[in-house]
Every structure is written in structure tokens, then in C-alpha cells.
Structures
1.
Amino acid sequence: MLDSMDYVKLSRSLTQFFCELRKMDRSCYKADSIRVYFHAIARSLKDNNPEINVYKDARFHNLKKTVDGLIRTLRQTENPIKKQAQEITPDMEKDLRDRGFLGYDTPKGLLGALLFELGKLFGLRGGKELRSVRRNQLKIENVDSGLVKITFFEDRTKTNQAGTNNFIIA
């Protein structure tokens, strides 16, 4: 069927498809689902006919504008998803330390404390910032009585233009 269909007709048909696309219960798909459908169809068309490129071909301009507008409209009406963990209050942290889950007296407590502190330090950062952490930003040094001090030197970031002197874990 696609072999006999010209690009203009294909573009109109796909535009109509996206305008009428609904779930079985007639509700709208989420914006991300529409975006994924669009990219999947574009990829399938390109795989079947390398001459078809809905991203660059001017004959598909209206299709792209329609899908972009649909996605923009859906994003404005969707409830934003807040990915946020429950806050650990200082009282909760004290309770964890009192019960031995976080501490320096036992290997299990030390491991818990290390994971907790590293989670606070690195877990709140974005993906790009985590991927850019380099080995030379951590300094490990022995201090008196067999303790080890780990110092993290933070680079300048988009939200922290001045950088910080350092964070000390221990």
C-alpha cells in the first residue's frame, strides 16, 4: 500500500492518524507515548524505504507540526510526575544511628553509613553531573588512629558556578 501512496497523501494520512489516536477507552495517550509512536513510524518508514525521511523532508512538515502541537497540548494538560523520595529527617537519621544501621563501630554500620552519606552526596545529582565525576575529584588520605578521610572536590556546575571548596565524607 505504501508503494502506491505518494508522500503528500502519506503525510495527510499520518497526520489524521495522530489526530485521532486514542486508547481503547477513548482517552488520549500521554505525550511521551505519542512521541514514541511518531519515532517508531518514522523509523519503520525509513527502514522500508530509505528515501522517506519524515524529519527532513518538507512534504512531512505539516505532520511534524501537528505531532509537535499535539505533544505540546498534551504536556500542558498532563499532571507532572514528581519523582521524589520521602525525606529522611535528622530525627530519622539519628534513629538509624542509634539502632546501629549507620555507625562506625561495626562493619555493617560502617557500610550503611558510607552508603547513606554517598547517597546524600551523589544521589541528588543529575545524570550528566554523575557521569562527569572523575577519579581526581576524590582524595583518600590516612589520618591518625587508622581512620581514612575521603574528600570530594566538586567541579563548577550549571547551578554551582563558584564550585565548592570540598565535601568531606567521614
2.
Amino acid sequence: KDSRLMTKLFRHIPTTKTIALASFTALIGVVTYNVVSIYGFRGAMRLIWEGDHLPAEVRLAMDQLDTIEYSKLPKQERLLELLEISVEIALLNSVDGGETNNNLPSTVSLMPGKIKKDVAMLSSAVDNLAASIDSVQSLQNKDVKGRKKLLSQIAVNLMERVDYLICQIELS
């Protein structure tokens, strides 16, 4: 009689497999909830089936911004840094030019024509870069809008630095 009672009691105690299955189910539920709360239902379905939570046209816009951010912007920044160094060297060389008093030659005449041409070309390239950032369609997507805004601020910063170089060349 006691053994039948004990069998009935232990029948309701969950086994290790039951606990593992319940834990796994709860984990899947939490992960699904988090994915759906981040990307929305459609984004979560796209993530599962296509491997990307973004629609195709938004992915295209993000890829265009990636190209600008990771290849075009760094190239222009490196060129700008080189030109800043070249202009600074030309300005310093003009001070050491050997002329005295008010007979100092103008820095523009001492500055190699290549530097002036390179600064003008960089100015045009940065303007084209800003135009390419603006030409990317945001498609009412907040992620694309945010990246466009960030990249536009970086382009404006580059433009200001190029304008400062142009002023240094023209004022000297």
C-alpha cells in the first residue's frame, strides 16, 4: 500500500528531460521576444528566413553608406591630413625664406602649385562626397537617417578643414 502511494507521488515530480525541455522553451521564448521587440515581427521573420532584418531597399542604402564611411571618407581624411602638413611646411618655409623686414615674399608665390591644385581638388572631392551622402534615399528608416546625419556631420567637418586650408593659402 505504501509503495503505490509513493509511485503516485513521484509520478508528478518532473524528470531531468522535462526540466531541460521547459528551460529550452523558456529560453527560445525570451530570445524570440527580444528579437521581435528590436526588429519588429517582419524584421524578425526576415532575420530568420533571409539572414538580414532590413528590407532589400534599406539594405542597399545602408551598403551605399558603408562604402562612403569605410572607403571614401578615410581616403579623403588621409589626403586632407597630408595637405595640411604640406601647407604648414610651406608656411614655415616662407618664414625662413631669407627675406627681411617688409620685403617678405608672399607664401602663395612660394607655395608649390601642386599644393594649391591638390587643395582645390580635395575641396571638390569633399563636396562630391557630401552630395553622395545626400543622394542616398533614407526611405523613412530611422537607421538610415541616423547614419546619413552622422556622415553628413563628418563631411561638414572635412569641408571646414578644407576651407581653413584655402584661407591659409589665400591670406598668406
3.
Amino acid sequence: AEIARKIAAETSLVSGSIEVLKAEQAIESSPKGKASRGALASLARISVKVLMAFRIRVVVQRNEEGQPAVAKMVCAVGPSDEPLHGGNTVPQTLSLTLQQWGFSYDQSKEVRRLIEQDALAAFKAIATFESGLSAEERGGRFAATDCIGLDVFLTYREGVVTPVVIEMNDHDCMHHASLLEDVHPGQRGECMRHVTRNMLHKSQRFLQKG
């Protein structure tokens, strides 16, 4: 409990949050060494929100039908006082991250919907641009972008949580998703499922054409 009190004091200075002060008071009013689990859990959640930040990596792939599909959303959680990158973040599921930052189930569902909407629109824009290129400009007769990764931050616009795409690339776009799947064996292969099916489908079509 003593460590928790120190964290509470430091966190309250950083954020000035009423939530932090309430958590601190709950701990202080508890018998020494017997701070309630609820108060400690509350403080932990608040400390995470104040001292940490996250970005969302969205993996979008072309499925076997040639349509864009979101394969994975994974959060990279790291320190809030420096730029986030692969070297100072750890992967975490979007649902757990939003829960830690105080989002309700319905709010999380809406955030996910907005992110997916923007991600699919970005992939469709690329596909539309590529459709106007010659085979030579695309890099080959059947060449096309089949997988991209988008980095997304959440911001407030007129009181509404809004996703903002800050970066898009095709290299190393599944790095954090693969790391997360190593931690959760039951999810292994999810970040590759659409692009793998697409490759197999293309191979079968190629063989059938002789």
C-alpha cells in the first residue's frame, strides 16, 4: 500500500485528476497494508492512462475475392513522453487497451467501427489508383497491393473520439500483430489469413489458366 500511495501522489501531480485524488484518498483511508483491491485497481488504470500512450496498427489485406478486409487491430502501448515506435512499445489488444483507458463497451465498439471504416477506405483508394496504372507501372500484369498497415491515433473533435491515420506502409506492417499472436497462441495466423488465402487463390487461378 505504501508504494501505491507514492504512485498516487506522483500521479496526482502529473494529472491533477479528480479520479486520481479519489483513488489516493481511498488508499489513505484504508488500514495500513490493507488498501482495497478496487482502489488499487482504479489507481493502476488511472496511472496507465496518465503515464502511457498508445497507437493502433490496423492490418488491411486483399481477401480471396479481391476485396479489402481488416485482418487485425493491435495497439502498441508505450511511454507518453516520447514518440512511440517498435522499440519502446508492447503489443496489446484493442479491446483491452480501450478498457484500460476507460472506454465503455459501446464506445469501444464505435471506435472499432470508425477505424475499420477509415482503413478500408484507405485500401480502396490505393486499389482505385492502381487500377489506372499500366501493368509495367504496377510492376507486372498481376501485381497489386495486397497488404498495408495503418497507424492510427485517437483524438477529440468537437467532443467526439475520432481516429486519425498518421502513417501507412506495406513493410513490417504485421510486426506488432505477430508479436501479439505469439503471446496469444489461439490467435496465431489471424494477421496473415486474408493475404494467405489470396495468394493460394491466385495460384489456383494461374494453374487453371495453364
